[in-house]
Amino acid sequence: MNFIDLFFEKKSRSVAQTNGRRGFLKGVGVALVGASSIPLLPVARAADAPVLPQEAGDPSSCDYWRYCAVDGFLCDCCGGSYNTCPPGTEMSPITWIGTCLNPVDGRNYVISYNDCCGKTQCGTCLCQRDEGDRPLYRSDKSNDVNWCLGATSSVYHCSTAIVVGVAFEK
Ligand code: ABN
Q1: Which of 15, 118, 120, 167 counts the highest number of beta carbons within 10 A?
Q2: 121-124 contact pairs (CB < 8 A, 24+)
Q3: Is the pTM of this model over 0.85?
Q4: How far is the CA of 59 from the centre of ligand 1 (A)?
Q5: What is the C-alpha to C-alpha distance for residues 170 and 93, in angstroms, rounded to an integer?
Q6: Cα 162 to Cα 46, 50, 132, 133, distances in angstroms
Q7: What DSSP string describes 29-76?
Q8: Region at 41 (left for phi over 0; alpha for psi -120 to 50; beta for the rest)
């Protein structure tokens, strides 16, 4: 046996004598719990949403600045708000994204138009502004899509308008 073999044999034996199987399992447990507390992916979270200036406008009116690219019933008129679903409905996990100018600070914001699903259509405050909308055959650029098709229930109720970030000019 050469020097390196002897060195690693000695080290392995000493580790085995000082740390039993329980110690090893404890170490693995601590490492797993520690790793789970570290976020794995740099995903966008609600907490990362930009700080917005003082609000202007009426969220139950189709003219409200966040609705510039919406096509649907405004959840604000249906028991929810411009960014929350009415009770008993579920927010679609897939959405249509628009870019709207906030009149207060003159900046463009990226807005996610999540549909609320699971109840029949709300029927009040139909709002169709369609900024940036393209015909349905360009499905990647059309807002005329029922995003509830990606939710538990495909029944469409109303649409929200959630600010997800600031839009930067190229
Ligand atoms: N995203 C609003 C919507 C829902 C159903 C059908 C067309 C558009």
Answers
A1: 118
A2: 121/73, 121/156, 121/157, 121/158, 122/73, 122/75, 122/77, 122/78, 122/86, 122/157, 122/158, 123/73, 124/73, 124/74, 124/77, 124/78
A3: no
A4: 19
A5: 28
A6: 10, 11, 17, 17
A7: HHHHHHHHTS-SS----GGGSPPP-S--S-TTSTTSGGGTT-EEEBGG
A8: beta
For the stretch 60-98, pLDDT in tens is 999 999 999 999 999 999 999 999 999 999 999 999 899
Would you say the CB of residue 125 lies under 6 angstroms from ligand 1?
no
Q: What are the beta bridge partners of residue 80?
A: none
Contact of 40 with 126, CB cutoff 8 Å? no
Distance, CA 114 to ligand 1 centroid (Å)?
10
pLDDT at 42: 44
> Phi and psi dihedrals of 161, rounded to 5?
-140, 100
Longest Cα–Cα distance in the chain: 85
Is the CB of 73 inside a 6 Å radius of any atom of ligand 1?
A: no
